[in-house]
Amino acid sequence: MKLKTIFASLGLALSVAVGGVAAFANKPESAKNVNADYSSTIRVYVDLDWGNIDYVRLGTDQPSGAAVLSSSNAKYNQSLGKYVRDISSGSTYDKMGCFFSQSGQWWQYQYDNGYIWISGGFKPGYEYQIKSIGYVSESGGVKYFAATPYEIGEITDNVVNPTLYFVDGHSWHSSGNVYVHYWGGTASSTYPGSAMIDTGLRLKAYVGETEYSGLHIYKYTISGSVAYVQFNNNSAKTGDLRPVNGQVYFYGVSAETYGVVASFLVDTQSKMGSYIYGGRSFTKSICAMSQSQASNFVSTYNNLDTNYGSGVASSVEGSGIVTYDQPELNNTHTGEVSLSAIKDSLVKKYPSISSSSRVISIGMASTDTPTIAIIVVVSVIAVSAVAGYVFLKRKEQN
C-alpha cells in the first residue's frame, strides 16, 4: 500500500481501517516540526538492497552524483530505500539518471542512457522513490535494469524524539494496552509496538451518536527518529501516519470538532508544576500556574465555551484531568476534576481574573487566601462500563 503524507491542520481528518478516524488536532507553535527549506532540493531514494554494491549515483553518472545510505542521517526515511541523494536544484529534472556499481560491474537504467522519466518530472521540493529494480539485459560490458519511479510528495524529514498523544475513542484500554508502532528511522518497533501511557487527561465527546465523558488520552515519547506511526490494540489499528511532535491523534472521535479541546487539555497539563498547600507538597499542580497563565486558561476556556458551538461547549465543560481532589484531607485520593471546576478554582485563587461563570470551590477550607491544589496524576481510573465502553455516559450540558 502506498503511504501518503498527511499535513497537520485543524479540521483535517484521515480515514483509517476499522471504521474509525485518526486525525490531527491543532497544537502550540512550539510543538511543530521544523524542516529545512527544501524549495530548491530534489530528494531521491533508491530501493536497492542487493549485496556487494560499491556505490549508487543519481542525477549523473559521475562521482558528483554519489548517493548516501539513508541510515547515515536521522532525517532520511529508511523505509523508502537504502540509498538517497538530496540534489540541489531550483529547476525540474525532466528525467533522473540512476546508476550503480556492483562488485565493479556497471549497471544503468535500461532506457535513455540510464535516465528515468516520470510524469511531471522530478520537481524541486519533492521526494521520489525508485524501486522494483530488476535485471533486463547486458551489452558491451554494461548491465541494464528496469525500475519504477514514484512521487512520494513534498520532502518531509523524519521527526526526532516525538511525543505523540492518542484519543482512545473506542476504549481499547478496557481490554489491554494501547500501542504505538513506529518505523522508518533510527527507531523502530516490532508490531504491535510500545505500550502508551495514560496521561490522566479525559475528553468528553461523541462516539457515533452517543456522547461519552472520560475518553482516555494516551501519550508516548519515541527515542530516535521515525517516518511512520500506527496506533493499535494488537487487533484494530489506524492507518500509517506521518508523526508530528506534540500532535494529538484521534480514533473514533471527530478531530474537526474536538481537536481544540484536546489541545487545550494537553496545553493545560504542560503548565502544571510543584505547589505546596496545607503543609503538603504536590507535583503537577494547576495552582502552580502564574496569574498570567491562569488568565490565559480562563480566556481560552470561555472562548471555547462560547464561540465554538454546542458540541465544543459540552466537551470543554465536561472534559477534565485526573487529580488529587481532596487536598485538605490527604494527598492520595484522586478523581477526575473538570476543566470547568479548574477554571473556577483559578478564578478563586486570582480574584482579579474575570469569569463569566459562577465561582465554586472544590474541597476548600476557610482561609484568608482561598486556594486549591489541583494535581495531575498519571494513572488509570476505573469507571463503569456502558454499552461496551469503560467510561460514563453523561447528558449534554447546557
Task: Give the SSE layout.
Layout: E1 13-15, E2 21-23, E3 41-46, E4 53-58, E5 68-69, E6 83-88, E7 93-102, E8 105-109, E9 115-122, E10 126-139, E11 142-154, E12 159-160, E13 163-168, E14 179-183, E15 194-195, E16 197-207, E17 210-221, E18 225-226, E19 228-232, E20 248-251, H1 255-270, E21 273-277, E22 280-285, H2 291-307, H3 309-318, E23 320-324, E24 334-338, H4 339-349, E25 375-376
Parallel strand pairs: 3-10, 8-11, 13-20
Antiparallel strand pairs: 1-2, 3-6, 4-7, 5-6, 7-8, 7-9, 10-11, 12-18, 13-17, 14-15, 14-19, 16-17, 16-23, 21-22, 23-24, 23-25
Helix pairs in contact: 1-2, 1-3, 2-3, 2-4
How would you sum up this structure, described in words?
By secondary structure, the chain is mostly beta strands. The chain contains four helices and 25 strands. It has helices at 255-270, 291-307, 309-318, 339-349; strands spanning 13-15, 21-23, 41-46, 53-58, 68-69, 83-88, 93-102, 105-109, 115-122, 126-139, 142-154, 159-160, 163-168, 179-183, 194-195, 197-207, 210-221, 225-226, 228-232, 248-251, 273-277, 280-285, 320-324, 334-338, 375-376. The strands form six sheets. Strands 3, 4, 5, 6, 7, 8, 9, 10 and 11 form a nine-stranded mixed sheet that branches. Strands 13, 16, 17, 20, 23, 24 and 25 form a seven-stranded mixed sheet that branches. Strands 15-14-19 form a three-stranded antiparallel sheet, with no helix packed on it. The longest helix has 17 residues, at 291-307. The protein is elongated, with a radius of gyration of 26 Å. The chain starts with 12 loop residues before the first strand and ends in a 22-residue tail after the last strand.
